[in-house]
Design a protein that fits this description.
Blueprint: H1 2-9, H2 16-22, E1 32-35, E2 40-48, E3 57-62, E4 74-75, E5 78-79, E6 88-92, E7 97-98, E8 144-145, E9 148-149, H3 156-166, H4 174-177, H5 185-205, E10 207-208, H6 210-224, H7 236-247, E11 254-258, E12 261-265, E13 268-269, H8 283-294, E14 297-298, E15 304-308, E16 311-312, E17 316-317, E18 327-329, H9 335-338, E19 354-356, E20 370-372, H10 374-380, E21 391-393, E22 401-411, E23 414-421, E24 426-437, E25 441-448, H11 450-456, H12 463-467, H13 475-482, E26 484-491, E27 501-502
Parallel strand pairs: 9-10, 13-15
Antiparallel strand pairs: 1-2, 1-7, 2-3, 3-6, 4-5, 8-25, 11-12, 11-14, 15-26, 16-17, 18-22, 19-20, 19-21, 21-27, 22-23, 22-26, 23-24, 24-25
Helix pairs in contact: 5-6
């Protein structure tokens, strides 16, 4: 028993081949696993035996809420680990299996076979190098089984990021198209690989095989001088920082002014204090909270924006659900906007974003305009008698509106991507490891999830989403709102109409003033 426990609790990192040979047997703390049939998935948080017990047990934090058989990590009055109620599950270790969805290791990993191509790879898409740049295809090109980017050996972080940036938008094509006369040959080689073996084939065929991505991972590891890129799990923020800064030498997207000076950044990483009143915040509301708390501002409005959402470990999230804004006016976070002297919100006293002259009678003020923050303006104009009000910006700074392109999500250790066709407003869900074949090869899948997201998230009425229990949500809606990791915003297409005011019907949660 002592030898067995020693094997289970050993934290040493095996080499890739040894790990591949034992992957189906080894379960350790932090492993993503599955139990039962149909399988339920989760993360191992505790290993051991109960007092008086005779077999090894695993304490698992399940992904999904399961109140019938789950608690909070306690058993018979003793706490073995901590998690949300309805997620803590104890199961005999001998019946716990590694999560077959994410087990991307075959008995002889492809990375140890040089450039050999396994003939039995179920994706028969050609391994081609396309010189011709392909335009963004219709969404139908991507939809279906064996579509998207094939995952392999913990690659979901890279697969999801590439699909989210390039599948339905050419905004980030400058990463490999922009001229760089003084670039070393290795940098141009990397750009050529990214464009000709991944982006162009993806847009032409709707699918890319794992061999091309493994070639890219090898080059990222070599050029970025980061160990483990070929076999270990990373995260998209870590990957993109490496690509933008160390490999491609792209200028930072944003400049954030802090109390000690200006910092160049590629991301806005949301660090905010815990607030239990944040039941269903938007990305913009969370960004505003951080900027207000930290007294931050942007030196100018960027043309693209990557927002990393607060998340601390697998178990704790600052917000249980988040709604990514379809439109994000970033001008409200610039120095020019923040430094303007405007009255506080009539309702909550926070900084105002909008003003309405037609509300002055309802709020019994002699002022010519009633000022609101964005949240209170939305709530105030929910009432039918105010829905036809014309609401103007509180500060006369030109809008810099960004469109939501993609949302990268993480559940336990697995990354997936939702991305949007900005012309048709079609949403696609991409999972590079949706299925497996021969216990060797991952089968990617792309699903059209437009109807579900429009009904639950973007219908204009969030009452249904607010009141629903996790088990009541459609699977993709739950993942979209509860597992948000990063949101990608890009510059909106120019419009000829004046965008300094709006006259929308605010049909939101039934808040009234």
């Amino acid at each position: 028993m002592q030898d067995l426990m020693g094997t289970i609790m050993d934290k040493s990192t095996p080499d890739p081949v040894e790990e591949a040979e034992t992957a189906f047997q080894a379960v350790d703390l932090g492993s993503t696993v599955q139990v039962g049939e149909p399988p339920r998935y989760g993360v191992v948080k505790w290993l051991g035996m109960f007092p008086g017990g005779s077999e090894l047990m695993a304490g698992i934090e399940l992904d999904e809420y399961w109140p019938k058989d789950c608690g909070d990590g306690s058993f018979e009055g003793h706490s073995y680990f901590s998690c949300g109620h309805g997620h803590g599950y104890f199961h005999p270790l001998k019946n716990v299996q590694p999560d077959q969805r994410f087990l991307t290791i075959d008995p002889v990993p492809a990375i140890t076979r040089g450039n050999s191509i396994p003939a039995e790879n179920p994706l028969q898409a050609p391994l081609e190098e396309l010189e011709e740049q392909h335009t963004i295809p219709p969404t139908q090109v991507y939809v279906g089984e064996k579509r998207g980017i094939q995952g392999h050996y913990n690659s979901c972080y890279l697969d999801s990021t590439l699909f989210g940036l390039f599948a339905l938008s050419d905004v980030f094509d400058s990463m490999f198209l922009a001229p760089d006369k003084d670039a070393p040959a290795s940098r141009q080689e990397f750009k050529d690989l990214l464009a000709k073996k991944i982006i162009n084939p993806l847009r032409k065929n709707g699918v890319v095989r794992f061999e091309s991505v493994m070639e890219l991972r090898r080059m990222i590891e070599d050029l970025g001088k980061m160990e483990g890129v070929q076999e270990k799990e990373k995260d998209p923020e870590e990957l993109l920082n490496l690509l933008f800064k160390n490999i491609l030498h792209i200028p930072p997207f944003i400049q954030i002014r802090r109390s000690f000076g200006v910092e160049d950044e590629f991301f806005i990483q949301l660090f905010i204090s815990f607030d239990q009143t944040l039941r269903l915040p938007t990305i913009k509301e969370l960004t505003r909270k951080m900027f207000d708390e930290g007294k931050l501002s942007l030196t100018k409005a960027p043309s693209q924006l990557l927002v990393q959402v607060p998340r601390y470990g697998r178990g704790f999230k600052t917000c249980q659900r988040i709604v990514p804004d379809l439109k994000f006016d970033i001008s409200e976070f610039t120095e020019a906007y923040i430094s303007a002297d405007v009255p506080g919100c009539m309702i909550c006293g926070e900084r105002s974003s909008w003003k309405c002259s037609q509300c002055k009678h309802d709020f019994m003020t002699s002022e010519s305009d009633v000022y609101f923050c964005e949240v209170c303006s939305r709530k105030a104009h929910t009432r039918k008698e105010r829905r036809d009000h014309t609401v103007n910006r509180a500060v006369t700074v030109p809008m810099a509106e960004l469109d939501l392109l993609s949302v990268i999500c993480i559940e336990t250790s697995h990354y997936v991507c939702f991305t949007r066709d900005l012309d048709t407003n079609t949403w696609l869900f991409f999972d590079s490891m949706a299925n497996r074949l021969y216990d060797k090869y991952n089968i990617p899948r792309v699903t059209d999830c437009t109807a579900a997201l429009n009904e639950w998230v973007y219908s204009g009425d969030l009452t249904q989403l607010l009141s629903a229990q996790p088990r009541e949500l459609p699977e993709l809606v739950r993942r979209f709102t509860q597992d948000v990791y990063m949101c990608v915003y890009v510059q909106s297409k120019p419009k000829s109409t004046d965008n300094s005011s709006y006259n929308e019907e605010f049909v939101d949660v039934a808040w009234e003033f």
